[in-house]
Design a protein that fits this description.
The structure holds 2 protein chains of 2 kinds. By secondary structure, chain A is an alpha+beta fold. Chain A has 2 helices and 3 strands; from the N terminus they run E-H-E-H-E. In chain A, 30% of the residues lie in helices and 30% in strands. Chain B is α/β, with parallel strands linked by helices. Helix content of chain B is 29%, strand content 24%. In chain B, helix 2 crosses helix 6. The chains are: A alpha+beta, B alpha/beta.
Amino acid sequence: MTRVVVDVMLKTEISDPQGQAVLSALTKLGHQGVQAVRQGKRFELEVTDPVDEAAIRQIADTLLANPVIEDFSVHVQTS
Amino acid sequence: MTASAQDVAGDLADVRIGVVTFPGSLDDGDAARAVRLAGGSPVALWHGTHDLEAVDAVILPGGFSYGDYLRAGAIASFSPIMREIIDAATRGLPVLGICNGFQVLCEAGLLPGALTRNAHLHFRNRDQCLRIEARTAWTGDFEPGAEIVVPVKNGEGRYVAGAEVLAAVEAEGRVLARYVGANPNGSSRDIAGVTDSTGRIVGLMPHPEHAVEALTGPSTDGLGFFTSILASILGARAVSTG
């Protein structure tokens, strides 16, 4: 088994009010050094070997992310 | 009732409008009731089957299908009944998605864009003025530019799309309705609903099915969506048989 991580983020042109709310909270807590926050999703998939990365990309593109508003990246963890 | 009025009522009652229930749907009962008040026959459809029961049109109701897990409407868009609806819709079956149903239609790729978290992050529930802009199978009974008041209630109702998609939707006259006055969720260009290029597949964030009776709604303006689709279907039948 191999762990495959899929990170999903809103596209940069789509505003992220949740990230903005986190930034606002950080500012109130005194963390002045943080200039911007964007919030996304992380999926951890346990996949039988050998990992078919094309299949994982298809999973990400059809279900895990909505390509209309989100980008994704796939990371196969090698330990 | 005169003989012809009875004929019309009988014809209307012959129109079968499917209302899908997903796990977590909330407004399927009100949608069915709205169909009945408009004179049609609502048909309950279940998410886990492949049976469209020979309906003439389908309504995807509001609610939180599959708990809104992953993204609102995402998992519902892969349900067994949606496979049939997507297939039938591409062959001309009229479909109205209300609120969560609109989210399902966008997730299914039947309508452009997506619905995202409200810009102010709050759930917004109030009576809302809308301007009906597109003439579709679901809005034919409204005068172009008609302003109506129906409830809006959502947490993820902010309509977004890429700049090119938005420009195309505007240029092709596919903005179904726009918020008038305050925009309740930060939707791009105040868009409350969109239609596909045929005018048969339509999505709307606010809730016309909650504005069909004076006792419970802010108006009866919402009834127009349900009378429109009945008239559209009867009109199509008259053409095909006449």
